[in-house]
Protein backbone atom coordinates (compact mmCIF):
# COMPACT_ATOMS: atom_id res chain seq x y z
CA UNK A 1 0.00 0.00 0.00
CA UNK A 2 1.25 3.51 -0.86
CA UNK A 3 2.80 5.51 1.98
CA UNK A 4 2.05 9.19 2.38
CA UNK A 5 4.51 11.93 3.26
CA UNK A 6 3.20 15.30 4.48
CA UNK A 7 5.62 18.17 4.04
CA UNK A 8 4.52 21.69 5.02
CA UNK A 9 5.44 25.05 6.46
CA UNK A 10 2.91 26.52 8.88
CA UNK A 11 4.03 29.64 10.77
CA UNK A 12 0.65 30.06 12.51
CA UNK A 13 -0.56 26.47 12.60
CA UNK A 14 -3.52 26.34 10.16
CA UNK A 15 -1.66 24.45 7.42
CA UNK A 16 -0.44 21.99 10.07
CA UNK A 17 -4.03 21.42 11.26
CA UNK A 18 -5.16 20.78 7.66
CA UNK A 19 -2.27 18.35 7.09
CA UNK A 20 -3.04 16.42 10.27
CA UNK A 21 -6.73 16.09 9.36
CA UNK A 22 -5.79 14.33 6.11
CA UNK A 23 -2.99 12.27 7.72
CA UNK A 24 -5.26 11.05 10.52
CA UNK A 25 -7.92 10.05 8.01
CA UNK A 26 -5.35 8.09 5.99
CA UNK A 27 -4.11 6.47 9.21
CA UNK A 28 -7.68 5.49 10.08
CA UNK A 29 -7.89 3.78 6.68
CA UNK A 30 -4.70 1.83 7.41
CA UNK A 31 -2.24 3.89 5.32
CA UNK A 32 1.18 4.78 6.70
CA UNK A 33 2.01 8.49 6.94
CA UNK A 34 5.07 10.48 7.90
CA UNK A 35 5.05 14.18 8.65
CA UNK A 36 7.80 16.70 7.90
CA UNK A 37 7.29 20.17 9.35
CA UNK A 38 9.74 22.35 7.41
CA UNK A 39 10.40 24.72 10.34
CA UNK A 40 13.00 22.53 12.10
CA UNK A 41 14.58 21.89 8.68
CA UNK A 42 14.83 25.64 7.95
CA UNK A 43 16.17 26.27 11.47
CA UNK A 44 18.82 23.64 10.65
CA UNK A 45 17.68 21.46 13.57
CA UNK A 46 16.75 18.53 11.29
CA UNK A 47 17.67 17.37 7.77
CA UNK A 48 15.12 17.34 4.93
CA UNK A 49 14.16 13.66 4.61
CA UNK A 50 14.44 12.17 1.13
CA UNK A 51 11.16 11.12 -0.50
CA UNK A 52 10.79 7.33 -0.48
CA UNK A 53 10.11 5.46 -3.73
CA UNK A 54 6.40 5.15 -4.42
CA UNK A 55 5.47 7.59 -1.65
CA UNK A 56 2.59 10.06 -2.22
CA UNK A 57 3.88 13.53 -1.35
CA UNK A 58 1.46 16.04 0.21
CA UNK A 59 2.91 19.57 0.08
CA UNK A 60 1.27 22.33 2.13
CA UNK A 61 1.84 26.09 2.24
CA UNK A 62 -0.04 29.13 3.47
CA UNK A 63 -0.81 31.76 0.83
CA UNK A 64 1.39 34.81 1.40
CA UNK A 65 0.91 37.78 -0.94
CA UNK A 66 -0.97 35.59 -3.47
CA UNK A 67 1.77 32.94 -3.65
CA UNK A 68 3.06 29.89 -1.83
CA UNK A 69 5.92 30.58 0.57
CA UNK A 70 9.31 30.73 -1.21
CA UNK A 71 10.71 28.15 1.24
CA UNK A 72 8.03 25.64 0.14
CA UNK A 73 8.65 26.36 -3.56
CA UNK A 74 12.42 25.94 -3.01
CA UNK A 75 11.74 22.63 -1.32
CA UNK A 76 9.72 21.41 -4.34
CA UNK A 77 12.49 22.59 -6.70
CA UNK A 78 15.05 20.64 -4.67
CA UNK A 79 13.13 17.34 -4.82
CA UNK A 80 14.94 14.78 -6.89
CA UNK A 81 13.08 14.31 -10.19
CA UNK A 82 10.42 11.64 -9.86
CA UNK A 83 9.19 9.20 -12.45
CA UNK A 84 5.45 8.91 -11.97
CA UNK A 85 5.31 9.50 -8.21
CA UNK A 86 2.14 11.15 -6.95
CA UNK A 87 1.64 14.44 -5.13
CA UNK A 88 -1.13 16.49 -3.52
CA UNK A 89 -0.56 20.26 -3.12
CA UNK A 90 -2.71 22.13 -0.60
CA UNK A 91 -2.83 25.71 0.70
CA UNK A 92 -4.49 27.61 3.50
CA UNK A 93 -5.55 31.19 2.81
CA UNK A 94 -6.83 34.03 4.96
CA UNK A 95 -9.93 35.19 3.11
CA UNK A 96 -8.42 37.86 0.84
CA UNK A 97 -7.44 35.85 -2.21
CA UNK A 98 -5.75 32.48 -2.64
CA UNK A 99 -3.91 33.92 -5.65
CA UNK A 100 -1.96 31.54 -7.85
CA UNK A 101 -0.30 29.61 -5.01
CA UNK A 102 -1.95 26.25 -5.71
CA UNK A 103 -1.44 26.55 -9.48
CA UNK A 104 2.27 27.33 -9.00
CA UNK A 105 2.77 24.45 -6.57
CA UNK A 106 0.97 22.02 -8.90
CA UNK A 107 2.99 23.16 -11.93
CA UNK A 108 6.28 22.92 -9.97
CA UNK A 109 5.44 19.38 -8.81
CA UNK A 110 4.61 18.39 -12.39
CA UNK A 111 7.96 19.77 -13.57
CA UNK A 112 9.59 17.40 -11.08
CA UNK A 113 7.67 14.49 -12.65
CA UNK A 114 4.89 14.15 -10.06
CA UNK A 115 1.34 13.20 -11.03
CA UNK A 116 -1.20 15.39 -9.19
CA UNK A 117 -3.79 13.19 -7.48
CA UNK A 118 -5.84 16.07 -6.03
CA UNK A 119 -5.47 19.44 -4.31
CA UNK A 120 -7.19 21.73 -1.82
CA UNK A 121 -7.45 25.34 -0.74
CA UNK A 122 -8.59 25.62 2.86
CA UNK A 123 -10.00 28.78 4.43
CA UNK A 124 -8.17 29.85 7.59
CA UNK A 125 -7.96 32.78 9.95
CA UNK A 126 -5.77 35.54 8.52
CA UNK A 127 -2.54 35.24 10.49
CA UNK A 128 -1.76 38.98 10.30
CA UNK A 129 -4.99 39.90 12.09
CA UNK A 130 -4.34 38.20 15.43
CA UNK A 131 -4.85 41.42 17.37
CA UNK A 132 -8.39 41.95 15.99
CA UNK A 133 -11.40 40.31 17.68
CA UNK A 134 -13.10 39.63 14.34
CA UNK A 135 -10.37 38.78 11.80
CA UNK A 136 -10.96 37.55 8.27
CA UNK A 137 -11.48 33.80 8.35
CA UNK A 138 -12.31 33.82 12.06
CA UNK A 139 -12.63 30.29 13.48
CA UNK A 140 -11.40 28.64 10.28
CA UNK A 141 -10.41 26.02 9.46
CA UNK A 142 -13.52 24.65 11.16
CA UNK A 143 -14.81 21.07 11.23
CA UNK A 144 -16.41 21.36 7.81
CA UNK A 145 -13.12 22.68 6.31
CA UNK A 146 -11.25 19.77 7.87
CA UNK A 147 -13.88 17.35 6.60
CA UNK A 148 -12.90 18.52 3.10
CA UNK A 149 -9.28 17.51 3.83
CA UNK A 150 -10.55 14.09 5.00
CA UNK A 151 -12.63 13.78 1.83
CA UNK A 152 -9.53 14.59 -0.24
CA UNK A 153 -7.54 11.97 1.70
CA UNK A 154 -10.16 9.28 1.03
CA UNK A 155 -10.36 10.16 -2.68
CA UNK A 156 -6.57 10.23 -3.14
CA UNK A 157 -6.19 6.91 -1.34
CA UNK A 158 -8.83 5.33 -3.59
CA UNK A 159 -7.09 6.67 -6.70
CA UNK A 160 -3.80 5.16 -5.54
CA UNK A 161 -5.47 1.82 -4.75
CA UNK A 162 -7.01 1.82 -8.25
CA UNK A 163 -3.66 2.66 -9.82
CA UNK A 164 -1.91 -0.16 -7.92
CA UNK A 165 -4.63 -2.56 -9.11
CA UNK A 166 -3.90 -1.52 -12.71
CA UNK A 167 -7.29 0.19 -13.05
CA UNK A 168 -7.74 3.52 -14.79
CA UNK A 169 -7.22 5.94 -11.88
CA UNK A 170 -8.37 9.55 -11.79
CA UNK A 171 -5.93 12.44 -11.42
CA UNK A 172 -5.84 16.14 -12.22
CA UNK A 173 -3.32 18.38 -13.95
CA UNK A 174 -2.14 21.78 -12.81
CA UNK A 175 -4.49 23.42 -15.34
CA UNK A 176 -7.37 22.34 -13.04
CA UNK A 177 -5.82 24.68 -10.47
CA UNK A 178 -6.01 27.66 -12.83
CA UNK A 179 -9.28 28.85 -11.23
CA UNK A 180 -8.64 32.55 -10.65
CA UNK A 181 -10.19 35.37 -12.65
CA UNK A 182 -7.88 37.31 -15.02
CA UNK A 183 -8.08 40.24 -12.60
CA UNK A 184 -6.85 38.14 -9.68
CA UNK A 185 -4.15 36.47 -11.79
CA UNK A 186 -2.85 39.90 -12.84
CA UNK A 187 -2.92 41.02 -9.20
CA UNK A 188 -0.96 37.90 -8.20
CA UNK A 189 1.58 38.47 -10.97
CA UNK A 190 2.27 41.93 -9.55
CA UNK A 191 2.38 40.81 -5.90
CA UNK A 192 5.28 39.25 -4.03
CA UNK A 193 6.52 38.75 -0.51
CA UNK A 194 9.72 40.59 -1.48
CA UNK A 195 7.70 43.68 -2.48
CA UNK A 196 5.71 43.47 0.78
CA UNK A 197 8.98 43.31 2.71
CA UNK A 198 10.26 46.43 0.96
CA UNK A 199 7.08 48.26 2.04
CA UNK A 200 6.96 46.92 5.63
CA UNK A 201 9.08 48.17 8.48
CA UNK A 202 11.56 45.48 9.61
CA UNK A 203 10.57 43.56 12.73
CA UNK A 204 13.31 45.01 14.89
CA UNK A 205 13.19 44.72 18.67
CA UNK A 206 13.34 47.78 20.86
CA UNK A 207 16.64 47.39 22.70
CA UNK A 208 15.32 49.29 25.72
CA UNK A 209 12.52 46.73 26.24
CA UNK A 210 14.21 43.50 25.08
CA UNK A 211 15.28 41.23 27.95
CA UNK A 212 17.33 38.96 25.67
CA UNK A 213 15.16 35.93 26.48
CA UNK A 214 15.60 34.50 22.94
CA UNK A 215 11.97 33.41 22.58
CA UNK A 216 11.57 35.25 19.25
CA UNK A 217 14.67 33.47 17.90
CA UNK A 218 13.39 30.04 18.97
CA UNK A 219 9.91 30.60 17.58
CA UNK A 220 10.86 31.98 14.14
CA UNK A 221 9.54 29.31 11.70
CA UNK A 222 12.20 29.93 9.07
CA UNK A 223 15.24 30.53 11.28
CA UNK A 224 15.43 34.18 10.20
CA UNK A 225 16.23 35.66 13.63
CA UNK A 226 19.71 35.60 15.09
CA UNK A 227 20.45 36.11 18.76
CA UNK A 228 21.92 39.57 19.07
CA UNK A 229 21.28 42.45 21.38
CA UNK A 230 18.45 42.91 20.44
CA UNK A 231 17.62 40.12 17.90
CA UNK A 232 16.79 41.18 14.32
CA UNK A 233 15.53 39.35 11.22
CA UNK A 234 17.64 38.51 8.17
CA UNK A 235 16.54 38.51 4.50
CA UNK A 236 14.77 35.14 4.83
CA UNK A 237 12.06 36.70 7.06
CA UNK A 238 8.56 35.99 5.73
CA UNK A 239 6.71 38.65 7.78
CA UNK A 240 4.71 36.03 9.69
CA UNK A 241 5.06 38.17 12.86
CA UNK A 242 5.33 35.13 15.13
CA UNK A 243 8.21 36.96 16.85
CA UNK A 244 6.06 40.01 17.61
CA UNK A 245 3.20 37.85 18.89
CA UNK A 246 5.37 35.87 21.28
CA UNK A 247 7.56 38.61 22.76
CA UNK A 248 6.78 38.81 26.50
CA UNK A 249 8.18 42.37 26.65
CA UNK A 250 6.19 43.61 23.62
CA UNK A 251 9.54 44.77 22.28
CA UNK A 252 8.68 44.04 18.63
CA UNK A 253 5.87 46.30 17.51
CA UNK A 254 3.82 45.98 14.33
CA UNK A 255 1.64 48.85 13.13
CA UNK A 256 -1.75 47.22 12.45
CA UNK A 257 -3.86 50.40 12.46
CA UNK A 258 -6.49 50.31 9.72
CA UNK A 259 -5.17 46.93 8.60
CA UNK A 260 -8.44 44.99 8.95
CA UNK A 261 -10.36 47.59 6.90
CA UNK A 262 -7.70 47.54 4.15
CA UNK A 263 -7.72 43.74 3.97
CA UNK A 264 -11.53 43.62 3.94
CA UNK A 265 -11.55 46.05 0.99
CA UNK A 266 -8.97 43.91 -0.83
CA UNK A 267 -11.06 40.77 -0.19
CA UNK A 268 -14.17 42.47 -1.58
CA UNK A 269 -12.26 43.61 -4.69
CA UNK A 270 -10.91 40.10 -5.31
CA UNK A 271 -14.39 38.62 -4.99
CA UNK A 272 -13.13 35.10 -4.30
CA UNK A 273 -15.77 33.11 -2.47
CA UNK A 274 -14.76 32.63 1.16
CA UNK A 275 -14.68 28.95 0.64
CA UNK A 276 -12.72 25.79 1.10
CA UNK A 277 -12.45 23.82 -2.11
CA UNK A 278 -11.16 20.40 -3.05
CA UNK A 279 -9.95 19.68 -6.61
CA UNK A 280 -10.37 16.11 -7.83
C1 LIG B 1 2.62 38.14 5.40
C2 LIG B 1 1.31 37.46 5.14
C3 LIG B 1 0.75 37.53 3.88
C4 LIG B 1 -0.50 36.91 3.63
N1 LIG B 1 -1.03 36.99 2.38
C5 LIG B 1 -2.27 36.47 2.15
C6 LIG B 1 -2.89 36.59 0.87
O1 LIG B 1 -2.30 37.08 -0.10
N2 LIG B 1 -4.15 36.12 0.72
C7 LIG B 1 -4.84 35.53 1.75
O2 LIG B 1 -6.00 35.17 1.56
N3 LIG B 1 -4.25 35.35 2.97
C8 LIG B 1 -2.99 35.80 3.18
N4 LIG B 1 -2.39 35.63 4.40
C9 LIG B 1 -3.08 34.82 5.42
C10 LIG B 1 -2.55 33.39 5.43
O3 LIG B 1 -2.63 32.81 4.15
C11 LIG B 1 -3.37 32.52 6.39
O4 LIG B 1 -3.44 33.11 7.64
C12 LIG B 1 -2.79 31.12 6.47
O5 LIG B 1 -3.75 30.24 6.95
C13 LIG B 1 -1.61 31.01 7.40
O6 LIG B 1 -1.20 29.66 7.45
P1 LIG B 1 -0.48 29.05 8.74
O7 LIG B 1 -1.46 29.22 9.89
O8 LIG B 1 -0.27 27.63 8.41
O9 LIG B 1 0.77 29.83 8.94
C14 LIG B 1 -1.16 36.22 4.67
C15 LIG B 1 -0.58 36.15 5.95
C16 LIG B 1 0.63 36.76 6.18
C17 LIG B 1 1.23 36.67 7.57
S1 LIG C 1 11.21 37.70 22.61
FE1 LIG C 1 11.26 39.90 22.97
S2 LIG C 1 12.37 40.11 24.89
FE2 LIG C 1 12.81 38.04 24.14
S3 LIG C 1 14.72 38.28 22.91
FE3 LIG C 1 12.99 38.53 21.50
S4 LIG C 1 12.64 40.74 21.42
FE4 LIG C 1 13.89 40.36 23.24
S1 LIG D 1 11.71 37.21 11.95
FE1 LIG D 1 9.64 37.29 12.86
S2 LIG D 1 8.30 37.87 11.16
FE2 LIG D 1 10.25 37.21 10.26
S3 LIG D 1 9.93 35.05 9.78
FE3 LIG D 1 10.87 35.13 11.81
S4 LIG D 1 9.16 35.13 13.27
FE4 LIG D 1 8.32 35.61 11.24
Automatic annotation (TrEMBL):
Source species of the chain: Desulfocurvibacter africanus subsp. africanus str. Walvis Bay
Key words, A-Z: 4Fe-4S, Iron, Iron-sulfur, Metal-binding
Query: Taking every annotated instance into account, which residue ranges of this chain make up the domain 4Fe-4S ferredoxin-type?
Result: 200-230, 233-257
Q: Which InterPro entries match?
A: 4Fe4S_Fe-S-bd, 4Fe4S_Fe_S_CS, Fe-S_Ferredoxin, Flavoprotein-like_sf
Protein name as annotated:
4Fe-4S ferredoxin iron-sulfur binding domain-containing protein
Family matches, as PANTHER family: ADENYLYLSULFATE REDUCTASE, BETA SUBUNIT, BLR5484 PROTEIN
Top-level taxon of the source organism: Bacteria
Q: Does the keyword Ribonucleoprotein apply?
A: no
